[in-house]
């Protein structure tokens, strides 16, 4: 600790007729040596300030002729010099300044030098003061290490000279400044005024803006005329922003702010700026399973529904083809100013392949296509125009019961088909494979199979009501369970396996229903 002085008034006196120990006097530098400085302190006396009693880096700064204030420690040392100290002179002057500042309530400048239990240490003119953790800032800082080495203004909140105990506060000055700003801010706050503030905090629902000692809430819905999902997309803590006062309650001092209100709602003019049919260029801002949202200008966006992406592909996943930030060209389909919706289309910028289909194909025409994919109900045939035609499973064969189109066709196979129906307005075209040949049920089958004819057949499938068997030319007939040659206790699935060859007799031919009934009972004996 610094040497204690019983009577500060005596220590400060410099009007003595001669030098006195433990007094502060003015001196003049005579010589600067490596181990200290020789000083003329008057009364024909020379004093010496050891290196250890100089201020920080002072040995390199002082030069002969400089005036310095020193503390007289000893009138006669072993070398015949008056022993002097710059550190103690500064300490006494600093204490004087601290007491004056404490009584007057004025701030002092200091430098944060380190961490101690419960707070930080602050150096003020060489005297160490304590800065409690609660007095560091308006809010407790997350990392006090960042403050070490920082110079600030502080208010002395307690000073005990006997114990050399100084307690300071930075928060007190910040509160005073905030209260002063608060008073000034409250006088200018009025609805409709445009003011500047600093982003203080961000939440999911908005941002708190410090207007100068008064916080205002900028709700996310008042940030942009367009779509944003979080305030962090527009603002960062510490940003200086210009906002509009939407509401102000002087009694509660509650302030709501607007950012988008600095400009008029762009949707007011959308019907004039974006007529139906116009081409526009926009930026992708969001992709969803049902479409792509495109920003046409700040605050105005439109939707390209997944059905408006391509004429042919109906199951496009937008995220596979579009990325946020992409520039896309589209056509305006519809504008709803009241609901703030704009419908866009990419496919409308391209020729409609179904218009080509309408003019190129006619019912009954033979065309060629490639098997593209299968469904339980049929196969899709890709045509040259990028359009898929449906070959229904019932139009594959006149006589065979086709369970699945893949039993007859292969992916990638080039086949010839007949156009059965064209519905461009519904984007549908159906084709047939069996229609390439005459219907055998109208002439060939009735003439070939007569009642009582014996035929060789092969089991195709076994059901609860009978057995389906294939005749020589692929025609199928049914042997009802009542017409099977079996004993009552015998099970059909044990007697008749798929591929089993049998001999049966034609029981009935029905061209209208495309059925041939067979029997095995007539074969007994």
CATH class type of the largest domain: Mainly Beta
Q: Which fold does the CATH topology of the largest domain refer to?
A: OB fold (Dihydrolipoamide Acetyltransferase, E2P)
Mean pLDDT: 86
The main sheet orders its strands as 1-2-3-5-4
Provide the low-confidence segments as ranges: 1-17
For the record, the CATH architecture of the largest domain stands as: Beta Barrel
Overall shape: it is: elongated
First CA to last CA: what distance? 133 Å
- Which homologous superfamily in CATH is the superfamily of the largest domain? Nucleic acid-binding proteins
Q: Based on helices, strands and strand pairing, what is the structural class? A: mainly beta
Please bin the fraction of helical residues: 10-25%
Strand fraction equals 35-45%
Provide a count of the helices: 9
Tally of separate domains: 6
CA radius of gyration is 50 Å
- How many beta-strand elements? 30
């Amino acid at each position: 600790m610094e040497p204690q002085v019983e009577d500060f008034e005596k220590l400060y006196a410099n009007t003595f007729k001669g030098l006195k120990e433990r007094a502060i006097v003015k001196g003049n530098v005579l010589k600067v040596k490596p181990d200290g400085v020789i000083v003329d302190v008057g009364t024909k006396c020379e004093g010496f300030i050891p290196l250890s009693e100089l201020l920080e880096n002072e040995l390199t700064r002082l030069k002969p002729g400089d005036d310095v204030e020193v503390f007289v420690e000893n009138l006669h040392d072993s070398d015949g010099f008056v022993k002097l100290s710059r550190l103690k002179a500064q300490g006494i002057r600093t204490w004087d300044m601290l007491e004056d500042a404490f009584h007057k309530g004025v701030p002092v400048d200091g430098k944060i030098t380190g961490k101690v239990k419960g707070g930080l240490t602050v150096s003020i003119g060489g005297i160490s003061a304590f800065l409690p953790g609660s007095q560091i800032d308006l809010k407790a800082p997350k990392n006090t290490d960042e403050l070490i080495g920082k110079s600030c203004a502080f208010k002395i909140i307690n000073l005990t000279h006997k114990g050399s105990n100084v307690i300071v506060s930075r928060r007190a000055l910040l509160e005073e400044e905030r209260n002063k700003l608060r008073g000034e801010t409250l006088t200018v706050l009025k609805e409709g005024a445009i003011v500047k503030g600093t982003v203080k905090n961000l939440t999911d629902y908005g941002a708190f803006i410090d207007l100068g000692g008064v916080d205002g809430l900028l709700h996310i819905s008042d940030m942009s005329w367009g779509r944003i999902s979080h305030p962090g997309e527009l603002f960062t803590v510490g940003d200086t922003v210009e906002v509009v006062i939407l509401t102000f309650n002087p009694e509660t001092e509650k302030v709501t702010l607007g950012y988008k209100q600095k400009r008029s709602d762009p949707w007011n003019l959308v019907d004039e700026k974006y007529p139906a049919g116009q081409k526009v260029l926009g930026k992708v801002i969001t992709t969803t399973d049902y479409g792509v949202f495109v920003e046409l200008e700040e605050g105005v966006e439109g939707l390209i529904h997944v059905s408006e992406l391509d004429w042919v592909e109906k199951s496009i996943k937008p995220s596979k083809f579009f990325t946020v930030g992409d520039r896309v060209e589209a056509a305006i389909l519809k504008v709803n100013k009241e609901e703030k919706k704009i419908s866009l289309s990419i496919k409308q910028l391209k020729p409609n392949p179904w218009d080509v289909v309408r003019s190129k194909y006619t019912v009954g025409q033979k065309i060629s296509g490639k098997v593209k994919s299968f469904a339980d109900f049929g196969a899709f045939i890709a045509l040259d125009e990028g359009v898929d035609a449906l070959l229904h499973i019932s139009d594959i064969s006149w006589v065979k019961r086709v369970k699945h189109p893949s039993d007859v066709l292969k992916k990638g196979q080039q086949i010839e088909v007949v156009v059965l129906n064209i519905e461009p307005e519904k984007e549908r075209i159906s084709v047939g494979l069996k229609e390439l040949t005459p219907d055998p049920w109208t002439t060939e089958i009735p003439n070939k199979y007569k009642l009582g004819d014996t035929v060789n057949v092969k089991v195709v499938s076994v059901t609860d009501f009978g057995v389906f068997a294939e005749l020589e030319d692929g025609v199928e007939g049914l042997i009802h369970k009542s017409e099977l040659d079996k004993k009552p206790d015998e099970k059909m699935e044990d007697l008749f396996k798929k591929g089993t060859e049998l001999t049966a007799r034609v029981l009935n031919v029905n061209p209208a229903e495309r059925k041939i009934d067979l029997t095995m009972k007539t074969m007994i004996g």
